[in-house]
Every structure is written in C-alpha cells, then in structure tokens.
Amino acid sequence: MSSAPPTALLLYCRAGFEKECAQDITQAAENHGVAGWCRAAPDSAHVLFHPAQAGDLAVLQKRLAFAELCFARQMVSVSGPLRLSPEDRLPPLLDAARSLPGPYSCLWLETADTNEAKELSGFCRKFEPHLKKALSETGLLKPDNARLPRLHVFFTDSTTAYAGISRPGNSSGWPMGIPRLKMPREAPSRSTLKLAEAMLEMLGEQERAQLRPGRRAVDLGASPGGWTWQLANRGMKVTAVDNGPMDDALMASGLVEHLRADGFTFRPRHAVDWLVCDMVDKPARAVDLIARWFERGDCRAAIFNLKLPMKRRFEEVQLARAVLQERLSRLEGSWRIAARQLYHDREEVTLAVLPIA
Ligand SMILES: C[S@@+](CC[C@H](N)C(=O)[O-])C[C@H]1O[C@@H](n2cnc3c(N)ncnc32)[C@H](O)[C@@H]1O
Predict the structure, then answer these.
(1) What residue ranges of the chain have pLDDT lower than 70?
(2) Is residue 231 one of the residues assigned to a domain?
(3) Which of 52, 88, 184, 299 has its C-alpha lying 20 to 30 A from 344's C-alpha?
(4) What is the residue range of 85's domain?
C-alpha cells in the first residue's frame, strides 16, 4: 500500500474549542487566498483543514505562520487517515514516512488531549520503540539535525492514525503542542505558569531579552503574585496592583511594591517597560484599558488575559485584535499583536502587544 503526500492540516486544540480552531484556520487560510473545509468533531481536541484545491496545502505550508493562529496548539501537514492492522501496524506507517518529505529530526507519537485519548497514550508509549527502530533502519531518522521536519503519528484510536510533518520554527516545539513547564516551588500561584508560557511561546528572543534586571513592570490584578513572581524572578522591579494580599516571600525580595488600588484607574508615575494584567472582566473593558496605557505612553509592551464569553469566542478575539490595532494605528510607533490560547489558559486567551523596533 502506498501513501499519499500531505493533503490536510491537522491542528491540535483545547477540547471544546474545535469550532474556534476551525474558524481560526479557515480565516487565516483565506487571508492567504486559500479556501477549504474543516472536519472538527465536538470535544475531539483536533481539527482537520482540507484546502479545496490541489496544491493549496503547499501555499499554506509556505505562507501561513503558526503564530497567526490563536486556538491551535500544533500544526501538522498530514496524510491519512491510515488504517492499521492490529497484527502489524508498521507497514502503512513506514510507507507514509517514505512518501512524506523526510528525513526527520524526530518521531512523535501523539493523541488528542482528551480524557478518552489518555488510554491511547499508554499504547503509544509501548508502540513508539518499535516504530522508531523500524524507522531508524530506513535511514529516515536523523536526530542530529534539529532543523529537519519532525515526523508525527497522531492516533485517533489504536488502529487509525494520521502521519504528518511539522517544521521547527513554524509549529510548537512540544509533543502534543503542550509545553511541559515545571511549577516553580517559590511561585505563589499556579497562574504563574500562564505568564511563563506566554513569555516562552509568544515572545521572540529579542522581546524576551527585554524581561531583564532593571526593567520596570506593572502587574494589574496581581494577588497573590504568580505573575509578579515571573517578573521579579527575572530581576525586574514590579508594581503589583490589587486589593488582595501579596505573597510574603515575594514581597521580601525587595523588588515588588504592592499598591491596594483599582487596576482600572491606576496610572504609574513614570512609564514602565511592561504592563501585565490578569484581572477578570469583560473583554471590551480589558482591551480599552490596555489601549489607554499605550495611548498615554504608560507602557512599552503588554501581556494580558482576555476572558472569553460562552458564545462567539472567536469573534471576540478578532474584535479585540481589531480594536487594539485601530487604536494603536493612531499612535506614533508600531506594534505587533499576538493572541494565543495557551495550554495553561482555560476559558481565556492571552494577548501580547509588542513594539516593533
Ligand atoms: C486571576 S487573579 C490574579 C492571579 C495573579 N495573576 C497570580 O498570578 O497570582 C485576578 C485578580 O484580579 C484582582 N482584581 C479584580 N479586579 C480588580 C481591580 N479592579 N483592581 C485591582 N485588582 C483587581 C482580584 O483581586 C484578583 O486577585
């Protein structure tokens, strides 16, 4: 049996956000002149986007940046589904590996991030060494070259899989698109992982370099201090604004000033480098607040959370981006706006507004 080259984009997402992920890819593809259709079963935590015209997948592979997508955790160009015999699953997978544009830097066996798929991950762990060994014998695995595409095998059940590739630099660098971040022992809340993930996944190297000792930040809605901890841990001076208490050990660092004030009316005495905001409020109110900080020149860059409503969640993110874009366009300077539903985000997305040098 011979396999076909990639025909679709497979996107992983948070379970329950398949519709938004489908809207996201459909819109992004359309922006690059590509029409297509999606298959997205509710709560399946993945979406398949099929370009309508032959050759259009290549257009997307060339032009579509993974960072354009908000609701996708991973983006893989796939062929399949492949039907695998329980007696010998290897032949169709090896065929697929030969027909995809290898060689590959690594092999990732994956499933959707759902409770039902958890059982499958045990199977994947057992099967992986067999497939790896067989692949190595074909000479298609070259682990020394991290710039080569990764080979993904995404199981929907133990006898059905999609085989595909992702390109480093235009996809998530984490298996299943899930950053495995360690909870820092000293951080006051688990929420710290959200900002850690945003810094890691949404900022470029030069932007991350601006999170350094001597830089100043304001954290709106800071209590008990998980986000503030991320900033202070990088040696930054932080003004933490919240009526709630801040963690004692964090305050003892000497880098944090705690103000019991309303985050919606607070203004810093001097402009700061970073504004971060984790207050729970209506998206329109949060966006207006962030826009005002830039309009007054009170911050250079911002990272903030947008709580999503139950309905029209994709539209709400689009609206937030459009409003920010429009208000920033009236100012001197230019910024890029990134929006992402991070692994550590639940009914929310994270936005970053970053100056373009
Ligand atoms: C999700 S919690 C923040 C958690 C924090 N980022 C962390 O990592 O520990 C939201 C916080 O926003 C604060 N908050 C809500 N409305 C506020 C307002 N108008 N001004 C200041 N803080 C506010 C709440 O008191 C609460 O502590």
Answers:
(1) 1-4
(2) yes
(3) 299
(4) 8-177
